[in-house]
Design brief:
The structure is a homodimer. By secondary structure, chain A is an alpha+beta fold. Chain A contains 13 helices and ten strands. In chain A, 35% of the residues are buried. At the A-B interface, β4, β5, β6 and α11 of A face β4, β5, β6 and α11 of B. Chain A binds a DNA duplex through α3.
DNA sequence: ATTAGCACTGGTAACTTTTTAGTGCTAAAT
DNA sequence: ATTTAGCACTAAAAAGTTACCAGTGCTAAT
């Protein structure tokens, strides 16, 4: 591919992104000061290389997945946010008052507003969380709340009605034993070690140890179950995209959004910004997912932007780069 | 309306529910041993009364909202669940091990499975909740968890990073004061009384009382904000309904489902089963909402089934009646 | 290497025709 | 007094026409 061909590919991708109409040779004449015939020749060449596609013999060209990929990797230049957008994000990130989860949540909302795509956060993956503390808070004679906290600052509570034959101080005692033995254990290994290490000990000291054990077991189990938090913002932005103009597509994408496993699958541990275009996105062939990891005061997760394959990549990349930079700044504050 | 006309109306409503096609006179001849002409006459009469409608001059009849209503109130007979369905529900309701919220959640899932409609629960309305206890659980020097519990057994937690100049025992002391003064206060009045009654007291005893006050204020505020829990099950069942075969309708109903205020609006305090057909449902003219209150060990809420106006009312009513009965049973256990 | 010219193509939109499933009404039959 | 057969009529849906448009690829000339 020579320089002119690259320019042409870039132009085609970008006009297609804007117009959503197959790009014909005529429209490009002016821009390149060439006749439509020449452009047609070049287009045919780019098609041979697999960067462009045609819907049918006599239609204009649209970028193929390979074409989008080449564009993102080699031709696109991330676009800076405008001042207003920057300001909005900055005030959120540097507001130390906000709880972390709120910061992320508000950030998501802004992302979906300024991109007009859907944003998803996946946070609190339990795998990297270790136990910091478990507490028993009595409410009345029949109820206690079990609090589980992790080193990353996640807290979950679960209420239990306790039968008469269990005494609250037995629960408290057990929680102290757990705290002594298991602090620092990865949260998804806690149940196992609870059985192997804690159960033998409490069996000697506590009468109804089976029932007590069950309560803690349930509390931790609950924690692992709810471990990946999914939060969407701007779900319906997806439906506003003109590619979703027919019933089947809409139903399809909605079902995909509801499919937790599919959504969780977005999570990545790679650093930097990753793009998954079309089929790679696992959602559907019209969708692109762009994502990046975040780590905000120890709470880690993935931010993803889900939009049409025909996405404004420059804007999205500019946005995510900006967010990454702000997060980095905050780390050093 | 004589007996025959009622029978006819019933038949028309039920076949329309099954087929979704305007019902013509011919198809009913066999059932009634009458000629199509006679049936046409009767239909014209029912139309005059407002129970039936026509799409255009020469189409079959469809039930009007008034028609559906008359059907539900006078003609329909709730249909018993089959054994399998009953069993599924019973095992959930009588499993005392399950936490209340899990019971409801599983119940929802079964409802949407056996009806093929969407189910919604609205629970934990803060209005009827009063404060039972607030606790401060320290995590480390910079973080505490504030736990708020209500008399109905709802617990929420919120983590705070606390600045160096606040000491944890000041927070604990304040929580004790709150517990002394405000237990039994309706949860949405707590913030107010916090300012009027608690703030003056702590201002004398605690140095950084403003910051401490803020922390508790935020904790209660959070509680009220999250007070009505909305939980959907089988959202996409709605899209499977053949009335949602065009883009506009689909987008519309999806947006309605996302509109919290609209959904919260379902909540009712009436006893028994209520039906809101078509426009009454506030969702859209094709939708019916059938709902009932539940009270499970003190946790109250509303269960609603959202489906097309052309809903299998007999099945839905049978189902909700069964659930009500089971809930009543459980109360007396 | 570029371009003008031309035959060709598949999709779209608009219009027409045909078919279909129903209606209401009248007059005759029960 | 009901019920029914028969017929003219209707709106919508389906199928068929036609014309047009926005493109293409290829060839021959520049």
């Amino acid at each position: 591919m020579d320089e002119r061909q690259k320019e042409l590919l870039k132009e085609i991708v970008e006009t297609y992104i804007k117009t959503i109409k197959p790009v014909g040779s005529k429209g490009l004449c002016d821009k390149f000061n060439l006749s439509s015939a020449t452009i047609r020749n070049e287009m045919a060449f780019l098609e041979q290389l697999g960067y462009l596609e045609k819907n049918h013999v006599s239609s204009g060209r649209i970028p193929s997945e390979k074409g989008y990929k080449y564009y993102v990797e080699n031709l696109m230049k991330p676009k800076e946010l405008n001042g207003e957008e920057m300001l909005k994000l900055q005030t959120i990130f540097h507001n130390q008052e906000l709880q972390i989860s709120d910061t992320i949540q508000e950030c998501m909302q802004i992302i979906s507003e300024i991109t007009n795509y859907t944003s998803v956060v996946l946070g609190k993956s339990s795998k990297e969380n270790t136990l910091r503390q478990v507490s028993i808070v009595p409410i009345d004679n029949n109820q206690v709340v079990a609090l589980v906290c992790t080193d990353k600052g996640i807290v979950e509570n679960k209420t239990f009605r306790i039968p008469d034959y269990i005494f609250i101080d037995e629960l408290v005692k057990t929680s102290e034993i757990i705290n002594k033995l298991l602090i620092g254990t990865p949260i998804d290994e806690v149940s196992e070690r609870l059985e192997l290490e804690v159960k033998p000990i409490i069996s000697k000291r506590i009468k109804q140890y089976e029932a007590v054990y069950e309560i803690f077991y349930d509390a931790f189990n609950d924690f692992t179950k709810n471990s990946t938090n999914i939060f969407f913002s701007g779900k319906s932005n997806m439906l506003k995209q003109p590619e979703y103009d027919n019933v089947e597509e809409i139903k399809n994408i909605i079902n995909k959004f509801e499919d937790e496993n599919l959504v969780k699958n977005i999570e990545s541990i790679n650093d930097g910004i990753n793009v998954y275009i079309g089929d790679e996105s696992k959602f559907d062939s019209n969708v692109t997912v762009v994502k990046t990891r975040y780590n905000l005061n120890g709470e880690e997760g993935t931010i993803a932007i889900v939009g049409p394959k025909r996405m404004e990549y420059d804007k999205v990349f500019g946005l995510l780069e900006f967010i990454n930079k702000e997060l980095e700044k905050r780390k050093n504050e």
